[in-house]
Amino acid sequence: MVEHFAYLKSVARATPKFAIPSPSMLHLRGGRNAVSQAAYPDLEEFWVDVAAAYRQAIAHLANAGCTYLQLDDTAFAYLCDPKIRETCRKNGDDPAKLPRRYADNINAALENKPAGMTVTMHTCRGNFKSAWVAEGGYDPVADAMFSANVDGFFMEFDSARAGSFEPLRLLPKGKKAVLGLVTTKVGAIEDKAMLKRRIAEAAKFVPLDNLCLSPQCGFSSTHHGNALSQDDQWRKLGLIVETAREVWGGA
Predict the structure, then answer these.
(1) How many other CB atoms sit within 10 Å of the CB of residue 157?
(2) pLDDT tens column, 83-109
(3) Model's pTM, two decimal places?
(4) Following DSSP, what letter does each residue of 228-239 receive, concatenated?
(5) Is the pLDDT of residue 126 over 80?
(6) Residue pLDDT, tens place only, 150-197
(7) Cα(150)–Cα(138) distance, rounded to whole angstroms?
(8) Where are the domains of the chain?
(9) How large is the angle between the packed helices 98-109 and 43-63, nearest 10 degrees?
(10) Around Cβ 142, how many Cβ atoms within 10 Å?
(11) Within the chain, how many helices (H) and strands (E) appear?
């Protein structure tokens, strides 16, 4: 994907942010049952190789000038859902142990992260064609997820499926929590006053200066798009910028 980043950097007028799948995406869907027993009789060897591959890939991106990398991760948010946890058991894994396993592997993948590179993680409950897969608050995974050595966490909070802001109390000092309060699933525009109220609620658990505002996910996870128009997208992005300026100030 280095060529993709190189093109992005060549046309960007601000810091180009590049997103790649999180290491946990190589495991979550199929689990132990999808990892070759012949190649990896000991699953720990699989995780060692995954981390090594990611370190190499991140180094290639850094050498190409990438200073802002995002890990797209559905694992942590999916593991908030009892149905997904049951699927993990059927796949041969203990869902109670997976959040820590995934966080540890992310940390191993980021061991040689360049000093000038910002890394964030986006958690997602599903976004294909405005659909969703998982539901449940971040409570079961927050402690492990926040141990990942990233600079900020993009978290979905656009519906009741995401639970309360209370798990944010576990966010380490100095880390950023980006509140995904504006949905990308439908075109109806959010109320600015409501967004401000919800930011204030989150600020009971995290200092306001460590909070940010964003869409809940991408406006189109695949070429199929979501159930909203380009005009809807730009209106929502405009609302986010306007709200952020009023809450945090700045240009």
Answers:
(1) 25
(2) 999 999 999 999 999 999 999 999 999
(3) 0.93
(4) S-HHHHHHHHHH
(5) no
(6) 999 999 998 788 889 999 999 999 999 999 999 998 889 999 999 999
(7) 17
(8) 2-246
(9) 40
(10) 22
(11) 8, 6
